[in-house]
Amino acid sequence: MELNDNKDVLNFHLTKKHIFWFLAALVLSGTLVRFAAAYHRVHYFDLSFYVDWSAGAVKDLFGVYENVSNLDYPPLFIFPLYITGKLLEMPWVYELESFKMLALKGWQMLFDIATIPLLYLVLRRHSKLAGLMAASLWTVNPTIIMNSSYWGQTDSIMIFLLLLAFFLLTGHKPVWSGIVMTLACLMKFQSLYFAPLYALYLLTSYRGKKIGQTITAGAGVAIGIFAPFMMRSGWKLPFEIYMGGFEQYPAACLNAFNYYGANGLNYEYADVVLFGNLTAENLSMMIIGLSLMMLLFFYFTASEKSVWLLGFIFMQTIFMFTTRMHERYQIPVLAFGLIACFIHKSLLLFISYMGITVITFISHFIVMENMISYPWTTWMEHYDMIIIVMSMINLAVYLITLWISVRILYRHGVQDLVTSFLACLPKKKLTAPIVGPVVLQEEPACGFPPKLE
């Protein structure tokens, strides 16, 4: 560290040694905080499923779908659950509730902690200091700590795999990226929401040979993991898992702070009529189509873009306006938004990230308070009204973040957006995506590279 007397500022020179020990301190601190949360908060809300699934995996690993009736996860999570089941068979673990919590939440904490150095690696290409700042913010993010360590949900595993997949994809390693993206989709159904953006980048950034190798590698991993389970449960197993999981929660809203929550439709069936003959499910399908069109438009016309910003916008839209959303499904936008605000150097986007952090934390807090705290506190008697009010706030935050994001995508403001839209009209045949000027840095902060071999 050096003091510059002329400018009266501190200039930092980060060496590999400094960065290593800083990240080590973050990982250690994050581990201890998560360990304490997991150890002391004993509950079985949703964790009871993992108890049953892990026991079924130990009893008959590849026949687990036949023996466990409520198993609705894809098969990747079964392998770590097998180890969890073995741990739960140990008397010193099973007889101590706090140790059982560590066993049941351990994988979630492990991947949550692994995301800390991963965020640094993602942003190191643009700024080492930004990478350390993002890693620090993730270490203390209250929503993530509550999700992985307090509640014990598996979203942290999916987030780690998604970030790693896009990191490898944008880092000229598409084949490895395809393998990791496949693992993400084999971990949780919600990873498929990011598949359109992933496919867009892959198809427009790489040539046919690499695309073929990536698809082949991904397909090989999917078949290799599913095959032993399909041999016991039938060839329809993938369809039963993904479609069955989708149909298992036919509600318009499941504690999510979104459009349907704002309309008081929490736990109402998705086929509820909104107005006229339009049901919530029909509106949701329309929104999915419009969201895909929006993604395509932004992808091919924006003058400044990144997969992180586009993933942030797309998943925010899907969460806010489609049915069957749980409160947890907004969490991935935190990771994508955090990376995007540093890449695009946007203070307003960073403020949006902080706002969404507060909102997602409140959503987790009230769900946990509602489900496992007894007797209820007085304010929990107004649970439904809380969801309506917070959903309205989240909708307002969504509109603000969308405006901020569009301003980033189109650096020259409304005129740039209108010009891009007019260029997409079928007056002329477009032969290449419209891109803006390139800003020279260690590597381009925004925009996508030409096709790679």
TrEMBL record:
This is Glycosyltransferase family 39 protein. Its main location: membrane. GO terms for cellular component: plasma membrane. One of its GO terms (biological process) is lipopolysaccharide biosynthetic process. The keyword Coiled coil does not apply. GO terms for molecular function: hexosyltransferase activity; pentosyltransferase activity. It is found in: Cell membrane. Residues 95-230 form the Glycosyltransferase RgtA/B/C/D-like domain. It is a multi-pass membrane protein. Keywords: Cell membrane, Glycosyltransferase, Membrane, Transferase, Transmembrane, Transmembrane helix. The keyword Transferase applies. The chain crosses the membrane at residues 20-39, 106-123, 156-172, 179-199, 211-231, 283-300, 306-322, 334-366, 386-410.
